Structures are given as structure tokens and as C-alpha cells.
Amino acid sequence: MAFPPFAVTVDLVVFTIRDDQLCVLTIERGEAPFAGGQALPGGFVLPDEDLADAAARELAEETGVGKDAELERVHLEQLGTYGDPTRDPRMRTVSVAYLAFAAQLSEPIAGTDAAAAQWMPVASALTTSLAFDHGQILADGLERARAKLEYTTLAATFCRDEFTIADLRHVYELVWDVTIDPRNFHRKVLASEGFVEPTGEQTSQGRGRPAQLFTRGDATQLHPPIRR
Amino acid sequence: MAFPPFAVTVDLVVFTIRDDQLCVLTIERGEAPFAGGQALPGGFVLPDEDLADAAARELAEETGVGKDAELERVHLEQLGTYGDPTRDPRMRTVSVAYLAFAAQLSEPIAGTDAAAAQWMPVASALTTSLAFDHGQILADGLERARAKLEYTTLAATFCRDEFTIADLRHVYELVWDVTIDPRNFHRKVLASEGFVEPTGEQTSQGRGRPAQLFTRGDATQLHPPIRR
DNA sequence: GCGATTAATCGTCACACTGAGGATAATTGG
DNA sequence: CCAATTATCCTCAGTGTGACGATTAATCGC
């Protein structure tokens, strides 16, 4: 049976928080087209590979997040699919974009197709001209991430295993690019059942009064949501 | 350059309200695999066609919704992409699913690949074994539709040009499968700026007090949302 | 050591939105 | 005309929210 052949790729929008900034994983392309330009990590889906598996594989190749224990602390979800016939000058390509949230990871690893990989502040990435339609994919991923913080507990995915309410608030402030009243935020997080669980421990150092430490709770959805 | 070749299709989850039920457009497959079985409408993306264009084309082929004036009253959005290597026994296929909301349309039209097309009540479709992974796609589409009614004005897309608050409430009740207090719903819809605009006219017939008629407002998002 | 500073935590208050449900208005069918 | 039906308006108590005052417990500069 005849059908038009397509290349299918996955591209990743991987967010993390580093140096007090929301950052996205980018690579420097080693091959044409856009050789030397910045792009989102990604690659071809293998002939017998599921889409989500391909995304997880690419994530592992670029970040070293491979072990199950590490994957548990990374959120990975499908973002959308981009298939403009002109998006890749080489061939007809459809790209399935995935969105990932990660706590601070080790340094990124240049993958097979990439000359280099780095965490780029999102503010910079948005004003950089990215390869293909990756600028649009990044913008869509950022908007999805912002929306998801409102009604899910995914903000905690950006934090280490143990974190304070202030750490969590900082995630919201960086992703939404707003300032949040610490007192009201504190009240709302503690009122959201299953968002965070107290460990009983406290932070030992830093300015100001020590804060209680928490771990992620069981809930995935926030009731009520925390509005932008 | 070598790459694994994929077939790329679009599949459609088209919802409408008919005979007091939420219905989804299904076709009876005319070809193997699953010949004679029920499936969602869809087809191959053409070599130089954008994904959204392919979805709109398939929608037009199956429903006759082709003119721009008609398309304006249909909502079409990407739902998600399904690429399990085993989803199609013939070949490696990736399907980009689209979700459509439509007001009551004329009878569906059997497309080129379909023996027949019909509006099937969603309750039946969910218990029917659909071809490929279309059962999953339908379930995902229904959940997306339910969620979208909460925070967007898309419920009005299911209504005719002029409608009453009760018509709109009925959309929510059918999609969410709940009953809603008419008095509170009335208050909330009128309080949501830009959701509906009064025409000044009234319904002429039917039991009970005549109701005011409204048209869709300019807003796309609901503030505050109408919660399930 | 000591006050200034910083940050965490708790509390108060007015306001907005919600669900429950009472009351009234305007029709149709006998 | 009366009962049934549906639309519309209104009240009230409970809950979540933003703004912000107050207290607590640590560090910092000297």
C-alpha cells in the first residue's frame, strides 16, 4: 500500500531552574541545516519505538537522566505536534514535541547530533532565533508550563527532594515572572491537601528564620488551583 | 539522508449534540484492517499539506462543513499524537488526533474510505470496540472537551447562532453528564463578561416563560471558570 | 554581644464567588 | 381561570482571596 512517507522526530522542551533562572535545554547543531545554530534537543523516532519512549531516550542522551530512579523525578508529557510542510528544508518532517520538567540536573551532555548542549535562560532563548520552528515550540511549551503550575502540583518537580515553601514559591515566581506574597502563598500551599508533606526537619543555614522542610505529596491536581 | 519512513494520518474526534445526546462522528470502515468495524474518521496527510489543513479537509469530507462561513462556527484543535508501533498492523503509522466541536450539522457524508458515517451517542461509542486505538483517542478527546468547558467559552460552539441560557446549560449537562442548578448557572453565565451577548429577542414557543436569546460573545476564556 | 536585617510563620479583615434554595414572572395546556 | 412549566431574580451562609499587620528566629555588621 502506498502512502506519503514522512520523517517523524521528537523534540524536547526541557525546563529546569538554575542560578535563579528558568532555563531550557538547548543544543548547538552540528549538522546542516542550521549548523552552528541553537535548537531544541531531539531526533528521529526509531522504527519500532513508541513516541514517549523516543522522548525519554533523547532526554537521557542529552541530560544523562537514564535510571528509573531519576526518571521518576522528571515529568515528561506530550506538548504538541508540528508538521508544517516547510518546517524542515531537507524532507517532509513531523515533529512530536514533548515537555519535561526537571530538578537541577548534572551538566547536559552533547548528544550524537549536537556539538554542545547547555542550559539557556528562557528569557534569552525566547529572543534567540532557534532552528526550524523551535521558537514556536518553546513558546508553546512555556505557556503550557505556566498553565500547568496553576492546577497541578508539578511545581514541586522543579525542587529537590526536600524543599521549603519559599523554594516552591520561587518556582512559581520564576516560571510566571511575577512576585508572590509569601504569606498568602504559604497559606494556600498548606491548605492544598497532598501538595506537600512536612518532614519535621528544618533548614539549617541561610539568612532569616529557618524554614520547615517538605517533600512532594501524593496529589497531582491542585484543589483549589493557585492562580496566576 | 536515510530516515525511518512513517505514514502520518489525522484522526478526528468530532462532537456535536443531537437528539439530546452528546454524539461523536464515526464511520464504518470499508477496508481492512477492521473492515466493517467502527472507527473515527481520518486519513493520510498529503505530501504538502499542513496537519491542521489535513484535519479540516477530512472534517469537510465527512461532514460537508467546507465553506469558510461554516468553518467559523466549528472549533478545531489538536488533541494529541498517537504512535504506538503496533497501533496499525499494516505499517508504522503516527496519527495526529484533532478535536472538533460543532453545532448540529447536516447528516454526515460517507467519505472515500468509509462505507458509512453516523453520529453515534458518546455513551455507546465508549462501550463499542473501535478500530485501532480510537477508543483511547475518543476517551482523551472527551476528557479534553469536558475540561475545556470549564475555562473556555466553547460550550457556545455547540449551540445555534441564537440560543438561550437553558440551551447553554444543556450543553454543560450533556457533556459533563450532570445536572446543574438553572438559577446559579444563569447567574454565572451573565456574570462572565463576553460569554454571551443578548440579542433583545425572546423565544416564541415552548412551555414556560419565554427566554431571552443570546449570541456568542467575544471572550474565549472564562473568568471565573465554571467548575464541574 | 547587640541592634539591624532578613525571612518564616501566623493572624485579621474586607471582598468576591459559590451552592442551596425561596420567590416571582410569563407562558402553555386543560 | 388553574396547574404545570420554565425563566429570572434574590437572599444567605460558607469558602477562598488579596492586602497587609504582627511575631518569631535566625544571620550580619560592627
Which SSEs are present, and which pair or pack?
The structure is a homodimer of 228-residue chains.
Chain A: E1 7-18, E2 21-29, E3 38-39, E4 42-44, H1 51-63, H2 68-71, E5 75-82, E6 93-101, E7 114-121, H3 122-127, H4 134-151, H5 165-176, H6 182-191, E8 196-202, E9 212-216
Parallel strand pairs in A: 1-6
Antiparallel strand pairs in A: 1-2, 1-4, 2-3, 2-7, 5-6, 8-9
Chain A binds a DNA duplex (30 and 30 nucleotides) through helix 6.
CATH-scheme architecture of the largest domain in chain A: Alpha-Beta Complex
| CATH domain class name of the largest domain in chain A | Alpha Beta
The SSE order of chain A reads EEEEHHEEEHHHHEE
Strand content of chain A: 25-35%
CATH topology of the largest domain in chain A: Nucleoside Triphosphate Pyrophosphohydrolase
Which blocks of ≥5 consecutive residues of chain A have pLDDT under 50? none
If you compute it from the alpha carbons, what radius of gyration of chain A comes out, rounded to the nearest whole angstrom?
19 Å
Number of H- or I-type helical stretches of chain A: 6
Largest sheet descriptor of chain A: 7 strands, mixed
Give the total of domains of chain A. 2
Mean pLDDT of chain A: 91
Q: Please count the beta strands of chain A (DSSP E, at least 2 residues each).
A: 9
Quaternary class:
homodimer
| Molecular shape of chain A | elongated
What distance separates the N and C termini of chain A?
51 Å
Summarize the amount of helix of chain A as a percent range. 25-40%
CATH homologous superfamily annotation of the largest domain in chain A: Nucleoside Triphosphate Pyrophosphohydrolase
Structural class by sheet pairing and helices of chain A: alpha+beta
The most extensive interface, with participating residues per chain, is: A-B, 27 and 27 residues
